[in-house]
Specification:
homodimer; 136 residues; two-stranded antiparallel ribbon; 2 strands; 47% helix; DNA-binding
DNA sequence: CATTTACCTACTATGTCAATAGGTAAATGA
DNA sequence: TCATTTACCTATTGACATAGTAGGTAAATG
């Protein structure tokens, strides 16, 4: 029942990019220093975020990453579903996983289903903008 | 973000004991056959449930396990917190874990905190009785 | 053209999960 | 009494995911 560092770092880097946004590109070197996390590991997460249209990256001097949209357009649910793969509390709810043959008679499935809806529903109502320090 | 088989099996065995309750003790052999899970593995889970007052077990012929209370007195949250260790979505919320030094400035902590409250709050309002097949 | 940055693939250490293996202890009923 | 049945106990294991590290290449700039 744990969100991995991958997902937590993804949120942190997006918040960091949002809070330090000055229109230009922000090098990961700076973010990594501020957030005190592994540069190499963060690079892999950025690659995922970049491929999926969350951020834009440019090479070379003056390069770095930049948000593709405004902070209130980043739903936490979307970010975590991407980095975690799924937010489902049990694998039988994970579309793409093999279906459970006990599904029809399963006493606990409604429980997991409702829990899943709650979790995703909550995380889809919070955005990066909500997590930013307001007095900026 | 997954509930382990340990927690899922615990719920299933308690539901099974509730649904087949006839006042006496039910041997794990029967439960394991109905639920189609590993006997040895289930035994370890029963030991945990027994030590923590969820079920009572007696040895020998005519022995087995029995619920200690009525089904509506078993909160799903209590069962899962026992078997999973914690339901916290991130370790910094897990009382007993080492506190995070970034706690005060952490932008994401309120998110995790509220999510944690939602998950626990929901699971504490559902009981084993709610998960039983009603027409018994 | 040297420097800076993103971007890529392969590898590894560690830990947890989901069991299995191989027993011992207690209670029963024949 | 004693074989059987059940719970209960400890140690070990295979598989897998996590959280990185190592060592590069490619692109952009000043």
């Amino acid at each position: 029942m744990m969100v991995s560092t991958k997902g937590r770092y993804a949120l942190r880097v997006l918040i960091d990019l949002a809070e330090h946004d000055a229109g230009g590109f922000i090098p990961m070197k700076d973010v990594v220093q501020r957030q005190n996390v592994s540069q190499k590991y963060m690079e892999r997460i950025m690659s995922l975020l970049s491929k999926n249209g969350f951020v834009e990256g440019v090479h070379g001097k003056g390069g770095g990453y930049r948000l593709n949209r405004s902070p209130e357009e980043y739903r936490i649910g979307d970010i975590l579903r991407l980095t975690e793969g799924t937010l489902a509390p049990v694998s039988c709810l994970d579309c793409g996983a093999k279906p459970c043959e006990r599904m029809d008679s399963c006493r606990t499935r409604p429980l997991w289903h409702d829990l899943d809806r709650m979790i995703n529903g909550y995380l889809d109502q919070v955005t990066i903008a909500d997590l930013m320090k307001k007095e900026n």
